[in-house]
Design brief:
This protein has helices spanning about 10, 55-80, 95-115, 125-130, 130-135, 175-185, 190-200, 225-235, 245-270, 285-300, 310, 315-330, and strands at about 15-20, 25-30, 35-45, 85-95, 120, 140-145, 150-160, 160-165, 275-280, 305. The chain has about 350 residues and is an alpha/beta fold. Bound molecules: 5'-O-[(R)-(carboxyoxy)(hydroxy)phosphoryl]adenosine and zinc ion. Zinc ion binds near residues 123, 148, 281 and 314.
Length: about 350
């Protein structure tokens, strides 16, 4: 019997199962031809609310339970059998190592059983491009701002795969600062949405919180000093704090974080002559941040690409998208993929110099 011709590159990308388990969201997507989402499920693990933050061991266990169920449900929603999937794309870096390992083991076993290729996707790279699912191809060069519980990254995107890292946080990520400030105010986890909501009733000028790093050159962020300033504002008061006080602290804190993010991003846009700005990460759900950056782009006459909240937060659709692109470019299947916890060790920051 003569060997079957190997599938063309684009045939491998025809129906990709995306798997995301890098932190505390378990997500599965089925993406057709890099464009049509046939199914997209995100299970947010509520168990972490009890602890006021993500507990890595519990996250791994929950991924283990949720992944097979979500995959079965995604296939049912897409009305396809596993046998018609053409490839699997799975997050392999960066993230909580135990959580990544669960996704990788599941993806490898599934791909091996079906005899289809598997590709490993970098989670932060997927955030850089998630907007393409709704907005199509980006004009380049672009600036991408990825702000989440684990990252605050400002990246000059010259093309897909060609990145120049402009800035990162020197301490806490923007979302982490939101979550920590919410915790000291007695608000529930995750803190970003709560602070965002409360700040609408507060006065942004009630407290003069610092805007760290703004007087310095470059594009890095720092949020730990801001967190300390919030703690100082609470000194001498007893919890639980009254709602008006919480709203004022929330509004003043949010104004400071957003001033920092916006100022750095505007500088990056002006210095690089970017033609578009792309947002990603859970903090990009913030209405005020979206509004300020939209206005900044309008003033410059450049495109702003903001994913819907579901695609800002951790999701498998963006993983399937990057996987489809990799398969199209001819990346070979890799069953020896390993989990890589740190962004610095994932190779992304040096991709394309
Ligand atoms: O991308 P994501 O879902 O998960 C990772 O951390 O990778 O981001 C979650 C983060 C949390 O820190 C959460 O507090 C923050 O995004 N967040 C927000 C808002 N919604 C979520 N921060 C500010 N404003 C929001 N509306
Ligand atoms: Zn993320």
């Amino acid at each position: 019997m003569s060997a079957l011709p190997s599938p063309t590159q684009s045939e491998r990308a025809r129906l990709v199962l995306g798997i995301e388990t890098s932190c505390d969201d378990t997500s599965v997507a089925i993406l057709e031809r890099g464009q049509t989402l046939r199914a997209h499920l995100i299970a947010t693990q509520d168990v972490h609310r009890l602890y006021g933050g993500v507990v890595p061991e519990l996250a791994s266990r929950a991924h283990l339970e949720l992944l097979p169920r979500l995959t079965a449900q995604a296939l049912a929603e897409a009305q396809v059998t596993p046998q018609v999937l053409t490839a699997i794309a799975v997050t392999h870096a960066p993230g909580l190592v135990g959580s990544l390992v669960v996704g990788l083991a599941f993806a490898k076993a599934y791909a091996l059983g079906l005899g289809i290729p598997i590709v490993g996707v970098n989670h932060v790279e997927a955030h850089l491009h998630a907007a393409a699912l709704e907005h199509g191809d980006s004009p380049f060069p672009a600036i991408a701002l990825v702000v989440s519980g684990g990252h605050s990254e400002l990246v000059h995107v010259r093309a897909v795969g060609e990145y120049r890292w402009l800035g990162s946080t020197l301490d806490d990520a923007a979302g982490e600062a939101y979550d920590k400030v919410a915790k000291v105010l007695g608000l529930s986890f995750p803190g970003g949405p709560e602070i965002d909501r409360r700040s609408r009733e507060g006065r942004a000028d009630a407290f003069e919180f610092p805007r760290p790093m703004l007087d310095r050159p470059g594009y890095d962020f720092s949020f730990s000093g801001l967190k300390t300033a919030v703690l100082q504002a609470l000194a001498g008061r007893e919890a639980p704090y009254d709602a008006a006080f919480v709203a004022d602290v929330a509004a003043s804190f949010q104004a400071a974080v957003i001033d920092c993010l916006v100022a750095r991003t505007e500088r990056a846009l002006d210095d690089t002559g970017a033609r578009a700005l792309t947002l990603g990460g859970g903090v990009a759900c913030n209405r005020e941040l979206r509004a300020r950056l939209t206005a900044a782009c309008e003033r410059r006459g450049i495109a702003i690409r903001v994913p819907s909240p579901r695609l800002c937060a951790d999701n498998a659709a963006m993983i399937a998208l990057l996987g489809a692109w990799m398969l199209d470019r001819g990346i070979t299947s890799d069953f020896s993929l390993d989990a890589v916890a740190a962004l610095e060790e994932s190779g992304l920051r040096t991709a394309g110099g």
